[in-house]
Every structure is written in structure tokens, then in C-alpha cells.
Amino acid sequence: MTDNPVDPHSGRLAHTNGPSGHPDGAPVEEIDGRALAIGSLADPTVHLSLVVPTYNESANIGRLLRSLHEVLTGMGATFEIIVVDDDSPDRTWATAAEIARTHPEIRVLRRTGASGLATAVICGWAHARGSVLGAIDGDGQHPPEVVADLMAAMDVRTDVAVASRHVPGGGVSNWSAVRRLLSRGAQALGLLLLPGTVGRVTDPMSGFFLVRRDVVATADLDPVGYKILLEVLARGDVLRVVERPYVFLERKEGESKVSAGHYVGYLRHLMRLRIHPLRSRALMRYLLVTVVALVADAVTFLWIFDRQGWNLTRSAAIAGEAGILLTVALHDLWTFAGRAARSTLDRIRRLLGVQIALGTLLAGRLLVINVLVNWFGLGPLTAFCIALAAITPVSHLLGSRLTWRRITA
Ligand SMILES: Nc1nc2c(ncn2[C@@H]2O[C@H](COP(=O)(O)OP(=O)(O)OP(=O)(O)O)[C@@H](O)[C@H]2O)c(=O)[nH]1
Ligand SMILES: [Mg+2]
Fold it and tell me: What would the 3-class secondary structure string for the chain be?
């Protein structure tokens, strides 16, 4: 680990190990795993900062860096290539540093005390100087020449330019049916949980893209695992996204780091992004509304069933509906008050959405109550309380969460 101080102005290391500072005489910047803010300060002399995350890629990194350097030089833009290596046992950082010695635009960050592809990319951006930031794999599977297409797409109105396997002209070179299925399955799951984010691009799993610095300068990026693009789309200030095709090449050397654990990590990442927009004040209001709706539900039931003597199913249905309508009203007028998309049409759409989502779960609740009373011989009040506690909180949290996604995600 390094003791190098971070320059508060640039957010970069104030001191780095230059050619004379490193035992190999190579330009390696040693950094620790701390997350740094990206910040809006760019260096006008550098246009593009492309980050290459690596772990045990010593067999690939040389070829990649040379062709990347050639492509970027050919584009005529000012650039830097930042290799962020997690202290690879195969000394990828040293191999990269050898090339950096003769290519001053290449920087090598050797990160200790942290690991993970997505955080490595953010770490690289935090040390970057360019006004356009980017990421490309270090194993040669992302064709370097596509960077030129992405750069061409980064005009003033473009926030993110994504290299996609799923637009015409793109593809995967030789994937097995199982891998294709896993990749598409992961995408479908993402669409289900984060439609507003995952649905914006055809290839949300892409680790090959460019983004304007402003978009992520103040974003609170905190990804788990591999999917840095998801994090950028979900938390960045992204308005316009464009996609350009590329063919995902076969790995020639080295080993994939993808394991079953990465799929779990992906799921965790999705869940974190799912609840992220509701942090803080809106989340507190959201939970409070859910509690209030449950209490209203129970009070209504007691009143019409116990006091008025209505039958069990009808009372539970009316009570449930009262809870649903109260939820809709309070979320609209209080929890998400002042947010975008507040047209009458939107309110109607939301009301219908809630009605469908929560109404379905309400039907389930009525079924449970009847089963508990008729099959298990429980008293109506006990059955109502059990069903209320078991089903209603889930239905309110999940059902209306989906329905309000357009204004919260
Ligand atoms: N710094 C850093 N880089 C990583 C880490 N894990 C993977 N990488 C790099 O991220 C890039 C993509 O990783 P891969 O394992 O090739 O993942 P993939 O390309 O999605 O999958 P394959 O097609 O199986 O190769 C490569 O350059 C890896 O070396 C990590 O923990 N830290
Ligand atoms: Mg790979």
C-alpha cells in the first residue's frame, strides 16, 4: 500500500512513483483501494481517458495497449490510457509499465487492498484527467478500433456511447448456447427489476463504453462486481445514450474471471440500484405510508366486519381496497410530491397499475383468509391478522414500488 497523499484539487495522487521511484524503473502509480470522487475537474490537455481494468492479463495486455495506442493516436485526439491492475500475481502491472515507458500516454495504477472490475474502473476515472472517460477490457475481447466509432459518437449532446453486441453489425464470436442463455437471462432479470435503466440500451452488460465526465462527476457510484455501465446509467446524470456495434472476440490468452459468484454479485447490484432512488427522505415516507395503509386496512376491517357485521370476504376486500387507495393518494400527494411526470394521465396510469398489482395480491390475501378459516378452523380475526402481516406489507412495498418506478428510477 502506498502512503502517497491524494491531491485534493485534482483528486489524483500528489506523488507517484516515476521511472526512478519504482524498483523496475517503470512508471507505476501505487494506489490503495479507497474510493475517490471523480470530480468535475478535467485537464484541458487531455480529451479522452480510457481505463483498462486488469487482473492476470500479462499475456494480453501488451498487444492490447499497443493496438489501443495506435488507434487513439490515429484519431488525433489527446488521450491517456490508464491500466488499473489489482496487484495481479502475474505482474500485469509490470508488463504494462514496460510498455508505458516508451508510451507516455499510458499510465499504470497498481491497486492494493481492493478488487473488482467495476470499482477498478471508477478508481481509474478518479485518477483520470480527460473530459471523456471510458472503459475497455484488458484481455483483447473488445476490439480497440471500435473506440474510434465511440469517440465519433460522443458529440456535444451524447452523454454515453456504448459498444453493443446487440445492434446490427454486433455480436459474439463463438459463445455456447448456455453462455448466450445466461447473458440474455441476466439481461431479462435486469429489465424486470430495473426497467428504466436496463431498458435504455440493448447491451446493458457491456463493459466497453465512453461517458462524459460531467455525467458521473458528482454521481455517487458504488457498484458491486462487474456491471459498471449499469451503475453509470442508474446513478449518472444521463440524458442521451448512443450505441455502436462491436463483435465480442474470443479470449486468446489468460483465463476468464467470471464465476458463479459474479451472478450473485450482479443480483446484489440490481437490488441495490432498485432501492437506491428511495434512499433517505423518500424511503422514510414510503415506509411510513405503507404502515399507515396497513393500519387503515386493519381498522376498516374491524369496523365493517366486527361492528357492522358484514361477511368476512367482503370486509377483507373492502379493507384491502381502502389500504390501496390510501397508498396511492399518499404517495402521489406526499411521498413523491414534486417529482417529474405528474400529468393527469400519469396519475390514472399509476392508479390502474397499483390496482392491478395490489389487487392481485389482495385476491391472494382473501384466499389465504378463507383457507385459514375454512380449512384450519382459525377465527376470522386471527386469519385476517395473519394474512395482513404476511401478504400486505410485501404487496404494498413491491406492487407500488413497481408502479412508481417512472418517477423514482
Ligand atoms: N482490476 C481488475 N480487473 C478485473 C477484475 N476482474 C476482471 N478484471 C478485468 O476485467 C476485464 C473483463 O474480465 P473477464 O474476466 O475477461 O470478463 P468477461 O470479458 O466478461 O468474460 P470472458 O468472456 O469470460 O473473458 C479483463 O480485463 C479482466 O482482467 C478485478 O477484480 N480487478
Ligand atoms: Mg473477458
Answer: CCCCCECCCCCCECCCECCCCCCCCCCEEEEECCCCCCCCCCCCCCCEEEEEEECCCHHHHHHHHHHHHHHHHHHCCCEEEEEEECCCCCCHHHHHHHHHHHCCCEEEEEEECCCCHHHHHHHHHHCCCCCEEEECCCCCCCCCCHHHHHHHHCCCCCCEEEEECCCCCCEECCCCHHHHHHHHHHHHHHHHHCHHHHCCCCCCCCCCEEEEHHHHCCCCCCCCCCCHHHHHHHHCCCCCEEEEECEECCCCCCCCCCCHHHHHHHHHHHHHHHHHHHCHHHHHHHHHHHHHHHHHHHHHHHHHHHHCCCCHHHHHHHHHHHHHHHHHHHHHHHHCCCCCCCCHHHHHHHHHHHHHHHHHHHHHHHHHHHHHHHCCCCCHHHHHHHHHHHHHHHHHHHHHHHHCHHHHC
